[in-house]
Design goal:
heterodimer; A: about 450 residues; mainly alpha; 2 domains; two-stranded antiparallel sheet; 16 helices; about 60% helix; B: about 300 residues; six-stranded mixed β-sheet; four-stranded antiparallel β-sheet; 14 helices; elongated; nucleotide-binding (chain B); ABC_AA/LPS_Transport (chain B); amino-acid transport (chain B)
């Protein structure tokens, strides 16, 4: 479409605008004709089709008029269309702003998250949504290690989520071990599967890697679905035990000793268990965050980022690409496994249905939308994507439309993600002596 | 000139081992039917800058790729003598050559980590030393003193090189935002941070203006004299080659056609022929010349 409608300061290029509007009308027509123009209705002989030409006409007209107004806005004083931002110098204005966000925003958000269940609006529904959002934040942070830091595009992350969930559910079903014993085991299993996936894809990058990881995710799901004797197939695993607080169960009464409300002398409330689950996932997510932040400042984290930037340069500097990639896959998968076993214990029932490709896509969308490699970006994107779908629930059938539209707007406005700024992992401290003696020994 | 800060170990090793730092014997590299390097042998010594020159397509970069493990040579032995220990580079994987034999390289098209800061580029180069100090990440994860000290030392070494290449005031910039000449020098500094015994530079002066070229000469002389390592250099810029190299090797169509001091190479007729071409009449075999003369004579 025409991009320059304003020829000189203040003067309008009317034909270009009209052409632009006409193009918009055509696009709207192409979209609206099948979506709005056709409607299936029940007729005595089966399904019939109802045509709604007037609605299509309104849509096209609205598109043309809207585009015209937008053109006028661009032509008179308004801002030009946003352009993709160029690279920023680290430590510039954005850096100062991000430092403030990191300094005050992060701790404030954590305090709010800790206090959330005590606040008056925290009812069962709010807590459930919060637990869901936190699960996805944790998954996003886990995937951020693989995609954001190491730059390995993983479309099958849900496989590790599934491995974690099934590990816990099956170990608990067969050996009757508690959640707190199974949690690290589930993480280890998932990390093991991360290495299994990592080995064959070591040489692959970009699109090819994405396809193989996508296949890996599907393989895990199909195996879970068909290995009926072991996983229960499509029936799933039910009766997954609930977690306890140092042996105190969250139930009205228990045969194994006092329950949570009896021990603390409280009145029984089903909300206790929800609040407990909320704190469990909050702690797990925060551990993920702190470990990731710490790893980023260690040699292994810097090697991941260097690998994302240029693998050949990494090899020339003596960085072992195999180990570096496998640790990224394994650690990312481990956090996916933790989140998976939490998911299993919260639901009490798991089946392959919960681990479809769309889950991988949502987690990847959270990472990309938040800005690859940005921890706070993942939080904002998860709240927006997961919380947003819940908020938009009142819009009923237009929910996904509103949601998709919002995503498109964000990608136009911030093509590199909400918080694309990268803070260096270390800065040069001011030298102590102005004339530093040359480091003879260290630089031989 | 022996530098003040030279490592004594290198000197004793050099005295002990009569072998050169790097010896390349009968190196041949074939890509299918194409022979990119044909039976090339040469030596490179410590405290010397050895330049490899030759017209485009002579196989210079292929020699580098064989030396640094990015290609596996078809035939040949590449021996690196690091403090008396011999490394057969043709048998080693690329990252092991940098990690164990301590051969560092730069690239013709600069390969920095553009989205990382200048300082981070230099610290990533010290990955293996830091990895050992962090005991495979665990000591680092808990912030033990051992790791913190190693990181401080790494930053100080980076500072040393940043001051050497005049980038200390831009240490926190993204490497990708630096001007071209600074990126070239940063890549050399990054290679030096791996503590190499042999530094391979692939066209370091490409795209530099005369002032930057002069700075580069000074930096390379400093590396040779103060750090006592061998420098292997591919270069087209003759002002750089003739001014700083101690030893020049000329390749043409994958073969070595000259080897010696810059003065000797400059006046070598083979080299002049390779660079300037030659008189066509000399090239044609006598029977064809005779044939041609007969034809032109017949028509006339």
């Amino acid at each position: 479409m025409a991009t320059h409608v304003r020829t000189a300061e203040g003067s309008l290029d009317l034909p270009a605008i009209l052409k632009d509007c006409l193009m918009t009308g055509l696009v709207v027509f192409a979209l609206a004709a099948p979506i709005i123009g056709l409607r299936t209705i029940d007729t005595p002989g089966g399904l019939g089709i109802d045509y709604r030409f007037d609605d299509v006409a309104f849509a096209v007209l609205a598109g043309i008029v809207g585009r015209f107004l937008l053109n006028l806005y661009w032509a008179y004083g308004g801002r030009r269309r946003p352009k993709a931002k160029t690279e920023e110098i680290a430590g510039g204005r954005a850096g100062a702003f991000m430092k403030k966000v990191g300094l005050y925003g992060g701790p404030a958000a954590i305090l709010f998250a800790i206090a959330m269940p005590m606040l008056p609006f925290a009812d069962r529904y709010t807590l459930d949504v919060a637990i869901l959002v936190l699960t996805y934040i944790m998954l996003g942070w886990g995937l951020n290690i693989v995609v954001g830091l190491a730059g390995l595009l993983d479309l099958g992350y849900v496989a590790f989520y599934a491995v974690g969930a099934y590990s816990y559910a099956l170990i608990a079903a067969h050996f009757d071990w508690s959640f707190w014993v199974c949690l690290p085991l589930a993480g280890l299993f998932a990390a093991f599967f991360g290495v299994i996936l990592g080995f064959p894809v070591l040489r692959l990058r970009g699109d090819y890697l994405a396809i193989v990881t996508l296949g890996f995710g599907e393989i895990i799901r199909v195996v879970l679905l068909n290995w009926y004797e072991f996983t229960g197939g499509p029936d799933g695993v039910s009766g997954v035990p609930r977690p306890s607080l140092f042996g105190l169960e969250f139930a009205r009464s228990s045969s194994d000793g006092p329950t949570f409300h009896q021990f603390f002398g409280l009145e029984f409330s089903s909300l206790h268990r929800i609040v407990f689950l909320y704190y469990v996932i909050l702690a797990l997510a925060l551990i993920t965050n702190f470990v990731t932040l710490r790893l980023r400042k260690l040699p292994i984290g810097r090697a991941w980022e260097a690998l994302r930037e240029d693998e050949i340069a990494c090899r020339s500097l003596g960085i072992n690409p195999t180990n570096t990639k496998l640790t990224a896959f394994a650690i990312g998968a481990m956090f996916g496994g933790f989140a998976g076993s939490f998911f299993a214990t919260r639901q009490g029932f798991i089946s392959p249905e919960s681990f479809t490709f769309i889950e991988s896509a949502v987690i990847l969308a959270i990472v990309v939308l938040g800005g690859m490699g940005s921890q706070i970006g993942v939080v904002i994107a998860a709240i927006f994507l997961i919380g947003g779908t819940e908020v938009f629930r009142d819009l009923e059938q237009y929910r996904m439309l509103a949601f998709g539209g919002a995503m498109v707007l964000i990608m136009i406005w911030k093509p590199r993600g909400l918080l694309a700024h990268r803070e260096p992992t270390l800065r040069l401290p001011p030298s102590r002596k102005p004339e530093a003696a040359p480091l003879a020994g260290g630089a031989s | 000139m022996i530098g003040l800060f030279a490592d004594p170990r290198v000197a004793t090793a050099a005295a002990a081992a009569d072998a050169a730092l790097l010896s390349v014997e009968h190196l041949t590299m074939r890509f299918g039917g194409l022979v990119a390097i044909d039976d090339v042998s040469f030596h490179a010594a410590r405290r010397e800058i050895t330049a490899i020159i030759g017209p485009n397509g002579a196989g210079k970069t292929t020699v580098f790729n064989c030396l640094t493990g990015f290609y596996k040579p078809t035939v040949g032995r590449l021996t690196l003598n690091r403090e008396g220990t011999l490394f057969y580079l043709e048998r080693m994987e690329d990252f092991r050559i940098a990690q164990e034999a301590h051969v560092a390289r730069t690239f013709q098209n600069i390969r920095l980590f553009p989205a990382m800061s200048v300082l981070e580029n230099l610290v990533v180069a010290q990955h293996n030393a830091l990895m050992r100090a962090s005991v495979m990440t665990f000591a680092g994860l808990f912030g033990l003193k051992r790791y913190r000290d190693a990181e401080k030392a790494a930053v100080e070494k980076a500072r040393y090189w940043l001051e050497r290449i005049n980038l200390a005031d831009r240490a926190d910039w993204n490497a990708g935002n630096l001007p071209y000449g600074d990126q070239r020098r940063l890549e050399i500094a990054r290679a030096m941070c791996t503590e190499p015994v042999l530094l391979c530079l692939d066209e370091p002066a490409a795209g530099l203006n005369p002032r930057e070229s002069a700075e580069l000469n000074e930096l390379l002389r400093f590396i040779r004299d103060e750090h006592g390592i061998g420098v292997l250099l591919i270069e087209h810029d003759m002002s750089v080659v003739m001014e700083i190299s101690d030893h020049v090797i000329v390749l043409d169509y994958g073969r070595k056609i000259a080897d010696g001091s810059p003065e000797a190479v400059r006046s070598d007729p083979n080299v002049i022929k390779a660079y300037l071409g030659e008189d066509e009449a000399d090239e044609l075999p006598p029977e064809i010349v005779a044939d041609l003369e007969q034809k032109t004579g017949g028509e006339a």
